[in-house]
Amino acid sequence: MIIYKQKNHIHCIRNQHSQDLEDHDNTVQVLSHHFHSVLTKPIFDRSIGIKKVTQCIPNLVLEEQNFILYKEIPFQLVEEVVMSMSRDKAPKHNGFTTDFFQSCWDILQRDVHKVVKDSHCSALLLFSFHATLISLMPESSKASSKFYF
Description:
Blueprint: E1 13-14, E2 20-21, H1 24-40, H2 47-55, H3 63-70, H4 75-84, H5 98-103, H6 105-122
Antiparallel strand pairs: 1-2
């Protein structure tokens, strides 16, 4: 059996004087000097370099679309969405139905809007929003085993 093993190895490196160096000690010295100078340089304005790089990337989202995506979600829109949902939806991951949220909207509205706003600002959803809950409802009021579901 033949085992081929790939090794990442620097065989030759060119120093600042354009000389090719092949021995290990000189390679270590050149790399150490390079990274030391890179890491100890004062931080400078990189906006010109960033602009050059980003100009090479095609714009897939129009500026108007980007503005809409970053625009704050109005409180009235959150309320409109909650109130337009069907009241008889199955319980959410936390056990509360849409009817609960609609009926208690006066109490919950600020917290719901804060969750929506935080998710929009951070571009992260709570893990529980990704959860799926399957509710088994019995076909009969006398359900006594899994066969009645």
